[in-house]
Amino acid sequence: MMSLFRYVQSRMPIRAILGLLLGLMVYATAISMRRDVLQAQYRTHGYDLPFTLESALYFRRVKMLYDRGGQLPERDPMIFYPEGIRTRETYTFGAEYVQAALMHLFPDRLSPEQKLRWIDCLWFSLGIPLLGIWVAVRSRSPWGGLVAAIFYAVALSSVIRSTGQELSRENAALPLLIGFLMSVALAETTAKVYARNLWALISAGCLAGALWTWDLIQFPVALWALAQLWTFVVRPQTRTPGGRMSACLACLGLGWVGLVNPYYQSHGFLLSPVFGLCAGVFLCSLMPGSAGGGKPVLSSQWSRLALAAGPVVVLAGWAWVSSYGEAYSHFSSLLAAKLMHGNVKPVDPSQLTFDQRVMWVPALHSADLTLTRLYFPAMLTLVVVMALPIFHYARRTSFPELIPLGWYLAVSVVAYILFVRFHVFVALFASAWLGMAVGIVRRCGRFSVQWITSVLILMGITAEARRTLDRPERWGRVNVYLPETRQLTDWLEANLAPYPVLANMGISGSIAAYGKCAVALHPKFEQPEIRERYRAYGEALFGTSEEAFRDYVESLGIRYYVYAKGEFAPVGETYQMRYFVNRLDAGEESPAWAFERAPETLQYFYPLWSNRKYAVFAMRTRADEQQAGTLLEEARLALSKGFLGEAKAAAIQAWQLDPRLTNAVELLGTVQSLEASGFEDQQAHEP
After folding, report:
1. Alpha helices in 140-261 (DSSP H)
2. Which of 69, 215, 397, 548 has a CA that sits 20 to 30 A from residue 209's CA?
């Protein structure tokens, strides 16, 4: 045993062994924190916890790959019925194939949902030790890396969306983004040329994989590109061969994704401002500069010209863009509305456009102090406190990553204030910032400052972990009515599948994934036709004519409608459909009112099933009315001939197709009167 230990020690220094063990401990801690939160959801909702909203559609795609051995239809007719969607142009595919393959490694006693939740948690947590390595290399302190990793492992802002309760592309992409940052750091600090080039190549692969998996990776890509351009113009002497190689290969990787990925092809990524910035970085990376404080190759005039060329590239991208601007116009429109209204959602819907109203929902609503204190009980406060020693001691030695990291964090905080969803980037960069602070203080600070910093950091970690583990059942999906959703999807699968249904955005994903029915609405707003259909649906539902709503449903080739109750609730009006279509004043004249409170008054829809939250209706189409009229005429003709049985059967069918046909009821009464008086069916005497 001792000889084995000496052999391992000779091959791997003791510090590397300790680092590996600490990394495994942090990784295990991260998994444990997330599983504790998930177990709390299981205790509350049961182990058959379904996925919801867009996560349900994500699960459906992975399940299709798992069941079919890696095959997906080019066009999926079950989503956005009747046209269907072009699958690879609608979603940023990538992680689904890996997840479907990994599901085969888990025991069969686990449900597909449980397998995916394990995979999601295990994969996301891999990014946490990578974060520790990145910060350790940049701060030149293993303690800094350890602190960053622990914060990211236990902080609620990191945990809440990575437990696996819901699937999201960000959980697959963020470890790859962290892997990119780590690989760049190693490429810039590695002396050997082959190792430097290898890390540069790995970094490019990680960034390309992250973008392939999640389109919002464009945000940190843009921040990184701007930081690279700033370094090239302002501090060219800090550029290293490894950094130039990494930047060059990363831009090539991003260009390859834009060229071959169907999603980015259809969205015009290569003509986007983000890629315009990357193109500028690529050109700058081809120009050598002298590291180590020497004179840069380019003169100051050339540097200023390069600085001016950046906006030109961006503006040129916007000028030529068509599909990119169209795909993300809803997002830029929402940003403009938030800036115009002081980041406060107007109570009056007429002050916003439809796209702005429908996008200003919980995932993209504005942050406030209450939510910030909930998500960041200590982290952001420590970020501000630790800024003082960071900038004080950083002047004594060179930390080239400090300014870019501060840039990433500052812009992410601003983005989070506007859109809560960006808290995932705040959690990442704030953890790295605190790790950098610890590393800098330990290298440069006095013993007293190190001691005070350690106490503050320990208190911060404790506060973050305590928030995460305090009543963890709070951190599940809210306002999704899980029992009622399960009841609905079970009934649809047993009684209507695979017939198409019309339902709102909130339940359509679950209907497609678990109810096995095609859905007409699709919670994916990048495509203008999807937004337009949603608007048309809402305006018809809260219009003044049930017949007009029937015509809209019928135009989609659908005859079944799922209504989600609560559209007239006195709370949360700004998240209701009547707010989205500017019909807060909708009342008893609207079809929605009848579906909600008086279904017996409906003329064209009749109830099939309902529970506390959802009601399923079948629709009487115009073709049904025409057939009912034909059957009524056949009943009259049969009655005129004395064929009582035939007349009775035709009248009943006519009434079932259209209960408004009072003539059918009268004819049935006539038939019954004739039968009661002893009149014989003449059809029995026909030869």
Report:
1. 142-154, 156-159, 169-189, 193-213, 218-234, 241-260
2. 69
